[in-house]
Fold this sequence. Notes:
- It is a single chain.
- By secondary structure, this protein is α/β, with parallel strands linked by helices.
- The protein has one domain: P-loop containing nucleotide triphosphate hydrolases (Rossmann fold).
- The chain is built from 8 helices and 5 strands, in the order βαβααβααβααβα.
- α1 crosses α8 (188-201), α3 runs antiparallel to α4 and α4 (98-108) runs antiparallel to α5.
- The relative contact order is 0.21.
- The structure holds thymidine-5'-diphosphate (TYD).
- Residues 14, 18-19, 40-42, 56, 70, 95-96, 100-101, 104-105, 153-154 line the site of thymidine-5'-diphosphate.
Amino acid sequence: MSEHGYFIAFEGGDGAGKSTQVGHLVEALEAAGREVVVTRQPGGTSLGAALRDLVLHGEAITPRAEALIFAADKAQHVQEVILPSLARGAVVVTDRYTDSSVAYQGAGRSLGAQEVADLQTWAVGGLAPDLTVLVDVDPATGRARRGGTHDRMESEADGFHAAVREHFFAMAAAAPERYLVVDGGAPADEIAAAVRARLAHEGLL
Ligand code: TYD
């Protein structure tokens, strides 16, 4: 299937404020007259919703099983939601994508970043975002912002979240033309303006 739309992923640690930024960007794109499809991972399809519940709230899931569940969610999501939307020219904005798995399962769970990246690439048939916005947050701030809700990932120690953060940085540094890194600790309006400026530069706004 050919792609004519534009694919944006938001990535970052737990409590970074990604979802708020996704909302701001979707508003701006719609105001500019774009068709926008907004989605999230895990989730975003009915299989994905079931997998999300299993992987975030299930018990006794081994690291490799966890990686495979996240990969299955993405495989379904790409076929069912993302590719058809891109094919008709929509802008697709996803809250998390393959980098989350490389950072959380590859670096956080120590399964190996390259192996997890290969698994993810296979699952999504090689579909990469045109732009990834990395909303950076340090583990302590993320924890404070998350407050009381703790799923299986969120309840991991700060060391886990620090490894995840470092790996997000490494991926952004390896391909700076495809990333925008923003400080999740800055005021939400400032972050939103930086994201809009980048998309204006890309010709979308
Ligand atoms: P979610 O409630 O969507 O968190 P957030 O609002 O921070 O995005 O929970 C998703 C959790 O799953 C989050 O802790 C990151 C983790 N995750 C992975 O470990 N691997 C993945 O491939 C994806 C997509 C998410």
